[in-house]
Design brief:
8 helices; D-amino Acid Aminotransferase, Chain A, domain 2; binds N-(5'-phosphopyridoxyl)-D-alanine; nine-stranded mixed β-sheet; 291 residues; Aminotrans_IV; six-stranded antiparallel β-sheet; single chain; D-amino Acid Aminotransferase, Chain A, domain 1; alpha+beta
């Protein structure tokens, strides 16, 4: 039996015992949204921006927000308290709820399903960080609302599998010749003294790690730039990083079988890596985290 305790619709229960109806719209239609929030030193990291993004996803999809900000915060804190790990990652999912008759059109009386659990957040494997990762580029086959953190991740799964089949670790997604993001991360490039990432729009998720890294850039002598990145520009970058709450910044050393820089994790990534660890420490001390 699992030692993890999950929250499902107002009740705590062992993760493995938690059950939702097969008529839940999340199961039948992928009709739901989610969040992944890291916890460092038993403190929820950057809670405010994560909550803000969850509220954006709920509002954009028209799923009623089932909790107040205070209730969401209490739920996150309870998840942490109920589990032994110092560093964790919280998973929160809200679907539109169970509908007795399958219909694309949702009934408006539905009660959202709320599911949350936590796992141990282990640091990235040091060997992977030393070596870096290999990526392919692929056409971004997703929909036009990638700013919503939707549970409907089939396209992301397919593109990740495509990368695996090509012998790569991940894929960088290209829409109309421009970089959008990774399959589960944002993309940043280093060009000289600039840290460049595509501007926020409907084609990518507003990553919390992305924003923290942009905020950190000046501290290590980098100019943060939000600008479209063409595939040609991507190929010429000094460094490429994938960024997310669980990966932090991950150096890409090979793209479509060509070396990025000299084919090893670059010096700017090394500098950002140590700065980001300090910044994490600072932000966990500060209630609410990054803005
Ligand atoms: N995903 N873009 C996509 C498509 C993502 O799925 C994620 C994160 C990000 C980075 O967002 P953040 O920095 O806030 O983690 C960007 C999470 C980790 C996941 O699905 O597990």
């Amino acid at each position: 039996m699992s030692t993890q305790t999950a929250w499902l619709n107002g009740e705590w229960q062992p993760l493995e015992a938690a059950r939702v109806s097969p008529l839940d719209r999340g199961f039948l239609f992928g009709d739901g949204v989610y969040e992944v929030i890291p916890v460092y030193e038993r403190r929820v990291f950057a809670f405010k921006p994560h909550l803000q993004r969850l509220k954006h996803s709920l509002e954009a999809t028209g799923i009623p927000n089932p909790h107040t900000d205070e209730e969401w915060e209490a739920l996150c804190n309870s998840l942490v308290e109920r589990h032994p790990w110092t560093d964790q990652y919280l998973y929160i999912q809200v679907t539109r709820g169970v509908q007795p008759k399958r219909d694309h059109l949702p009934q408006n009386c539905l009660v959202p399903t709320v599911f949350a659990y936590t796992s141990e957040l282990k640091p990235m494997d040091e060997a992977v960080l030393q070596r870096g990762v290999r990526c392919i580029t692929t056409q971004d086959i997703r929909w036009q609302r990638c700013d919503i953190k939707a549970i409907t991740l089939l396209a992301n799964v397919m593109m990740k599998l495509e990368a695996q089949r090509a012998g790569a670790d991940d894929a960088i997604l290209i829409r109309n010749g421009m970089v959008s993001e990774g399959t589960a991360s944002n993309v940043m490039i280093v060009e000289g003294q600039s840290l460049v990432t595509p501007p926020l729009d409907h084609h990518l998720l507003g990553g919390i790690t992305r924003q923290i890294l942009l905020n950190c850039a000046p501290a290590i002598g980098l100019l943060p730039v939000e600008e479209p990145i063409s595939i040609q520009r991507l190929y010429q970058a000094d460094e490429i990083w994938l960024t997310s709450s669980t990966k932090e910044a991950l150096p890409v050393v090979e793209l479509d079988e060509r070396s990025v820089g000299d084919g090893t994790p670059g010096p700017v990534w090394q500098a950002m890596r140590s700065h980001y660890q300090q910044e994490k420490q600072r932000l966990v001390q500060q209630r609410g985290g990054a803005s």
